[in-house]
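From the pipeline queue, job 12 of 40. The input is one protein chain; the requested action is below.

Action: predict structure.
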Amino acid sequence: EIIYLLNADSFLVGITNQDNYSKFKVGDMLNPDYEKIIKLKPSLVILTMPLQKKVLEEISKFNIDTLIISPQSIDDIFKDMLRIGKLLNKERRALFLIDSLKGVLNEIKSNSRKLENNKVFYEIWDNPLWTAGNKTFINDALKILNLKNIFDDREGYFIVSEEEVIKRNPDIIIVAHSNVKISDIKNRKFWQNINAVKNNKIIIVDENTFNKPSPNLIKAIKFLNSQLY
């Protein structure tokens, strides 16, 4: 997505199934078809850590150069934009986009209100339950909206139990995948006593914009802000 926003898609020879663009697809981002990648003869493969750690191990066997991005905050996403922009001779375009996106972020911050009941459970996947903790761009996005991640006492991405979620009793549940409906969340065993369920504060968001470390996350934050009140 960064490459497309930089108007540098002519440099792209392949993408993963999770990318919504019309380029040759090499398979799942966590388990791509390495033969397809080799046939494309890329001079560089961009990977996201720690998600694609196993992919990096395999790619390294073929002596293909890699660029690793591992954003732990929105500011890190901007830094990655600039890195890629410099690499593709699109530095001016990158700087322009970063400045514009920071302006949108500042506008969101000034318009977002402080919620009295602001504890959030962010669900990346349901079986098992995956969430994001501290030192992630997702946690950073929640902070911008004055939301308190119930698992920000842990770092990175990890599995949690339903019992942990119930005990921490979030006021808001954000579901960032398309595997469930709001009714499914409400019908989970013992979840009826969670504040978010009792008060109908369950928000389903687009996983393709919320769970990817790209500039489109800013649009996602703006959307979420509109759903909170």
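Job complete. The first strand starts at residue 45 and ends at 48.
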